[in-house]
Amino acid sequence: MPRVKLLAEKPNFSAVVGWNLCLFALVLALPEPFAYGQVKLYEGRELIAALELQSFTQQLTSEQVQYLTDAVRKALADAIDPQRYTVMTRESMDVLIPPEERKCLNDACYAVVGKRLQARLLLAGNVKDLGKRIGVTLEAYDGPTGAVLGIEQGEGQDIDELLEKVRAMARQIVAKVLGTKIPLKPVSPGIPEPLPPSFEEKVTPPKPEEGYLSVEGTPKGAVVLITGAGGSMSLRLPTGPLRVKAGEYSIKVTARDFDEFKEDVFVPADQTKVVTVNLVPSYGQLDIKGTPEGAKTEVSCEKNYKKEVGLPSKLVVPHGMCKIKVTRTGYEPFEREVIVEGGKTMEVKVNLVLESQNVAVGWQDNFETYAPNLWPSENWIKDANGGGVDDTVHHEGTKSLKITGVIGSCWAGLGYRALSVTPPFYIEMWVKNGTEALSGCHAYRSYIGLRKGTSWRNPGRQLILFDQSSKVRGTSDSQIAKYTPGIWYKIKIKYERPTPSTVKITYWINDTYITEETVSAVSDEDFLNNLDLTCGEGSCWFDEVKVYSAR
Q1: Contact yes or no for 446/463 (Cβ under 8 A)
Q2: What does the pLDDT read at residue 365?
Q3: Of 125, 124, 154, 131, the residue nearest 58 (C-alpha)
Q4: Which domains does the chain have, with CATH numbers?
Q5: CB burial string 380-410: b at 16+ within 10 A, e below
Q6: What distance in Å separates the CA atoms of residue 402 and residue 430, rounded to the nearest whole number?
Q7: In this structure, how many other beta carbons lie within 10 angstroms of the beta carbon of residue 192?
Q8: Which residue(s) pair with 491 in the sheet?
């Protein structure tokens, strides 16, 4: 006491400075908790830190989510033994770690946060939308290691229901964890627990069997139903990645006017499973155009769709196979099968032709009256290599006209017969192409056209041509279809002159409308008075040839 009094009466500057330096060195030597103004034990009690709930919901405000976090802390404080545990306040955690550094995405992060807070137990979680409901997850982590000790999940319709839910969940998880997961150690304040002299124990707790599941694709907003062993949840496309228990899940995605998608998937532990969904529109459009206007059109498609309309019509039909039948008295019927893709338009062109009894036949020839192996010179004029009547290959009856072109050369076979009709007129016949390999300068098999006179040197018009690459070409030489050598095809051609300077050609193959082409007339168009049947190379057969005009 006298020394203290002496210092008070007459301070010694050197002594004071020395005393302060000693205190400063003592502070620096203190353990880390003291350096931050925080101690691990509060009179023997261990710390519990409840971190802010992370928000992934659009149905609650940030203030409401913060209130849920405060409710969790209050429920923890009410549930624990105050003689053994203390729940840290948000303000006390802010002193040690800023709020943005307390947001974790993995277990290692929770271990770091737990050590910096000196907490024995961490509680974290999130709030997310589950369709029209709101889900809440609470997770308990071991502070020193970051290991998951327990998980509780629940859901509610609004903030009031969620408050009751999180209070119960907080009580349940702390009862489970503190009752079985964290053994309490008798600790005296300020006395460290003795360690073995030569060994350091490092224990890694078991990691939960969890993975991640994402569902991506179109259309955006489609309902995604995920079902697993733990129950079901309804979300919107796209969704995830969601942390789920490893195992089997059933995915079902639905949207209005789209086909339902279903798939069973397996989510491995520690991996992400991505499911890609592109729903197929349930309907497409069938656009039926053509003539004659008003013809009865019957349409039948998948899902028992049936409808009868007039020509032309545009229909919304289920995707898949559709059958179309168009009929009208005095016309030959039209039938066709098409595939309509979901969300797309299939266009079908129909041009009914008059029945045979309603047309004036210019002439027809089935080659049955001619001698075999000779050229039918009574009605046909041969040019270049020519050919003859074949009684071994035919479509109907017993004979056909075979015309051949020299393979590997430039010498085609041609045959002509006078049209004897004026536009508009039809040309009909059956055609079969040989299967020989072509190597000459004529890169085609059969050819149907019009010719001025009866010589290949004269002007002419190509109507249809079967080339060496299995393509069928029209009067413009554009591809209009494909064919297979060795097969009979029924060809029907309509020749019209819409104006003196134009020509319109319409095509049917096997009674199916293919297309139409309008081109400019050639200078000798009015003088093309013969039907021209040609075989560029190899063998070509023609049968049941008919030329006629409408009455």
Answers
A1: no
A2: 95
A3: 131
A4: 33-181 (3.40.50.10070), 210-278 (2.60.40.10), 283-352 (2.60.40.10), 359-550 (2.60.120.560)
A5: bbbbbbbbbbbbeebbeeebbbbbbbbbeee
A6: 12
A7: 8
A8: 429, 509
The answer, yes or no, to whether residue 545 has pLDDT greater than 90, is yes
Task: Dig out the tokens for 67 from the structure.
Answer: 């209130």
Distance CA 345, CA 287 (A): 7
If one counts every other C-beta atom within 10 angstroms of the C-beta of residue 546, the result is 17
CB 388 within 8 A of CB 374: yes
Q: Is the pLDDT of residue 184 over 80?
A: no
Q: Which residues contact residue 538 at a Cβ distance below 8 angstroms, ignoring those fewer than 6 apart? A: 404, 405, 407, 433, 434, 435, 436, 438, 445
How many Cβ atoms from other residues are within 10 Å of residue 520's Cβ?
A: 9
Can you tell me the distance from the alpha carbon of 467 to that of 497, in angstroms, rounded to the nearest whole number? 27
Q: Determine contact, residues 514/349, Cβ cutoff 8 Å.
A: no
Q: What is the pLDDT of residue 188?
A: 44
Q: Which residues pair with 323 in a beta bridge?
A: 300, 337
- Alpha-carbon span 547 to 532, nearest angstrom: 12
For residue 42, CA distances in Å to 32, 190, 227 come to 16, 11, 46
The 3-class SS string of 246-280 reads: CEEEEEEEECCCECCEEEEEEECCCCEEEEEEECC
- Dist CA 538 CA 412 (whole Å): 9
Q: Quick check: 296 pLDDT over 90?
A: yes
Residue 221, amino acid:
G
Closest by CA position to 321, among listed 307, 300, 344: 300
Whether pLDDT at 201 is above 90: no
Is the peptide bond preceding residue 144 cis, with omega within 30 degrees of 0? no
User: Helices 159-176 and 62-79: crossing angle, nearest 10°?
Assistant: 40
Q: Which amino acid makes up residue 162?
A: L
| Rounded Cα–Cα distance for residues 102 and 163 (Å) | 23
pTM of the predicted model over 0.90: no
pLDDT above 50 (res 215): yes
Q: Which residues, in sequence order, are CB contacts of 392 under 8 Å at separation 6+? A: none
Q: Is the peptide bond before 2 cis (omega within 30 degrees of 0)?
A: no
- Positive or negative torsion for Cα 91, 94, 95, 96: positive
Q: Which helix (H) or strand (E) holds 214?
A: strand 210-218
